[in-house]
Amino acid sequence: MSDAILLTVATGALCYILVYGKTYDWFSNTSMGIALAVMLVCGGLFLWLSAARQRKMLELGIFRRRYTWYGIGIFILLMLINSSTLFVTTYLKLSTCSGDLEAAAVSCWALPGCIAGLAVALVCVLRGVHFRYIYAIGFLFMLCANVYMYFHYQTMGLKEHTIPPTLLHYSGMLILYSVTCAFAMKHLPIRYFSTWLFLMVAVRNVVAPAIGTSVYGNWLQERQQNYITRFVQEASNDNPQASKQFAQAARLGQMQGKDALETERLATTLMKSKVSLQATLIAMKDITGSTVWLCLGSTLLVLFVPYHKKERT
Fold first, then answer.
1. Cβ contacts of residue 82 below 8 Å, gap of 6+?
2. CA-CA to 115 of 20 to 30 Å: which in 26, 170, 278, 299?
3. Successive 10-residue mean pLDDT values, the chain, 313 residues
4. Please, which residues have CB within 8 angstroms of residue 198's CB and are 6 or more apart in sequence?
5. What pLDDT sits at residue 266?
């Protein structure tokens, strides 16, 4: 029981650092240092108990198996790429008049996507397809989802445009998730079965999502601030287009019966909102383009990584 508590605390501290690190300016904040100390102490005590006890919660010998690292690596890549799905609902809210209800309705398309992914995985397994090709199919599904989104970012979008990437994302995710579980277990001794199940749940549901959320959240914030700075410099009185848009916004305030000060504030607010919207959409498109290359690299990686000869499902 003590080792389970230590591992839970260590994992919670790690997730706290990953999720709130950017918010608190990483280790310049005292809470980040405390979280790091808690993670190291609890993690070290957990490893010591796992090595000293006969009845262990975690069989450390599993980490000497290369297929354990194959599975962990694929899970981390999977959840890192899958974190880009947050751009789908964000794009839906920014480019349309949709709210949380419409975004939730689009997310419901994840279920048909999972069913389709399960069907593809079952067909591949029944036909004895090599693991490398099943993994490649899963990453290609996610690649297609990101390519689709890359060419559909615009200020005036349609809700229907967010359905195909949702289907493709979750189809690829389930293919990778379901096959990876069986892949590592096929090559591990039976005594590692419970340890592999624990690692699968811990990496898939705790560590990898925290890493993915942290990477994409911080990445989006950095890119967004970069583009806001660039657009603000361009949105000056010397720019004819920006000056014209400001004048139109000011005229709108005058038509509403506002005085000169309120009219200027309204025009400034509208221009700021427009710049923020454009910067966010371009930042998401920029990151989505990088995710396309990440998906392509993951596809090539699983195709060329060494497996057992004549490996089949």
1. 142, 169, 173, 212
2. 299
3. 74 80 76 84 78 67 76 81 76 68 73 87 83 86 87 73 83 84 72 76 77 80 78 60 56 57 60 72 84 89 73 51
4. 57, 58
5. 58
For tokens 């950095």, what's the residue? 222
DSSP, residue by residue, 272-305: HHHHHHHHHHHHHHHHHHHHHHHHHHHHHHHHHS
Provide the pLDDT for residue 57.
63
Using an 8 Å Cβ cutoff, are 78 and 173 in contact? yes
Q: Retrieve residue 82's tokens.
A: 């899958």
**55 DSSP 8-state letter:** S
pLDDT at 162: 78
Q: Would you put residue 272 in left (φ > 0), alpha (ψ -120 to 50) or beta?
A: alpha
Element (H or E) spanning 185, and its range? helix 163-187
Give the Cα-Cα-Cα angle 62, 124, 74 (nearest 5 degrees). 35
As given in the structure block, the two tokens for residue 265 are: 């504030």
Tokens of 191: 């005594």
3-state SS, 204-253, equals HHHHHHHHHHHHHHHHHHHHHHHHHHHHHHHCCCCCHHHHHHHHHHHHHH
